[in-house]
Specification:
mainly alpha; Arc Repressor Mutant, subunit A; 7% strand
Length: 114
């Protein structure tokens, strides 16, 4: 905004002020979104490396005690998101430590010792 536009804003009144405020509010949202994206990208890999082993250990302990627990039960029990539990279980199944046996509804988890 140059000096002429600012002078018009002050002289003309409320209509320009509202337009100016709306333009600024969109800019603020874009800056916040950009900043959040940068901070998440830089911290997520570090945090994942620290928390994933703890989460996987807790999941294995719970499933050893009760192999019929579902992902939603684990999420509630560990106070984690369903997506976080799903991610950890995917890693455990790919590594061969955890396996789902039987049918999709009446099955249970099998924890393999490695």
């Amino acid at each position: 905004m140059n000096k002429l536009e600012l002078r018009q804003l002050l002289e003309e009144g409320e209509g320009y002020k509202i337009e100016f405020k709306e333009a600024l509010s969109n800019l603020d949202k874009e800056l916040v979104a950009f900043n959040n994206k940068r901070s998440v990208e830089s911290t997520t890999p570090k945090t994942t490396l620290k928390t994933t082993p703890k989460t996987e250990g807790a999941i294995l302990a719970l499933l050893t005690a009760d192999p019929r627990l579902r992902k939603a039960d684990l999420a509630r029990e560990l106070s984690l998101t369903f997506t976080g539990i799903k991610y950890s279980i995917m890693k455990l199944t790919k590594s061969g430590v955890l396996r789902w046996t039987s049918s999709s509804k009446s099955g249970h988890w099998k924890v393999n010792k490695k």
